[in-house]
Amino acid sequence: MARNAEKSQSMLFRFRAQQAADLGILDTTRTRRPKAISQQESIPTCERWRGQVLKEISRKVSKIQDAALSDFQIRDINDELNKLFKEKWQWEMRIRELGGPNYMRGGGRVVDEEGREIQGGGKGYRYFGRARELPGVKELFEAATVKPPEDKALEKRADLRQKVDAAYYGYNLDEEDGTLLGYESATEKESFDAFMAAADDKGDADWEPLPGDSGHGDAWILPTAEDVETELIERRKRKLLDKL
């Protein structure tokens, strides 16, 4: 059996490697993942690198569950997972820019290469597995899940609708027995009498009657309908005489 070094020098192996390079297919196990993601121009190549990132995410998610890890190791692995998720997003953005499938359609739901959902995969900095139980992180999750007291909760629209009855729209018995109408009439009369008493009180310094047309200080006299009609007829006569 030929060794790997001998296989790599064979004519068939070199032909297959050149054929894969011409088709834009790379061997991700032998090639280092590129850093300049925006310079990649092949959709199959980007999808292969994205698949490699997903495999690394799956391995590290399983590794972070190891009970033998210290808190420092868990933090390091969690940081690496966040960097991998950022790189995964960059590959998906590049695939979408090149006209490939939209892998970001699922939103905050993140799955590995086998289709299993990864808990903690969303937006922003995320914590996976045992990283959620680290000192300081666990308290943050517990504080986020605490519900506010019911007495401080705001009323919803459905609760407000339950308090609305026929009396809110004016369909009550106050107008049928005449109690409300009598009270309104008495209040209206009191307000009118108080206004007229203030108008007749000449000693009030804040009260000033409106001046008349001649400016002699008499109270304002409102014209009647006949006065208005007579004034309009006179104006029309003056316009006709001016034209003549």
TrEMBL record:
Provide the protein's localization. Answer: Nucleus
**Superkingdom field:** Eukaryota
Instruction: State the InterPro entries in the record.
Output: Helix_hairpin_bin_sf, Isy1, Isy1_sf
The answer to whether the entry has keyword Signal is no
The protein's predominant localisation is: nucleus
One Pfam family linked to the record: Isy1
User: What's in the keyword line of the UniProt record?
Assistant: mRNA processing, mRNA splicing, Nucleus
Q: Which PANTHER family match?
A: PRE-MRNA-SPLICING FACTOR ISY1 (PTHR13021)
Regarding protein family, the annotation reads:
Belongs to the ISY1 family.
Q: What is this protein called?
A: Isy1-like splicing factor
Species annotation: Neodothiora populina
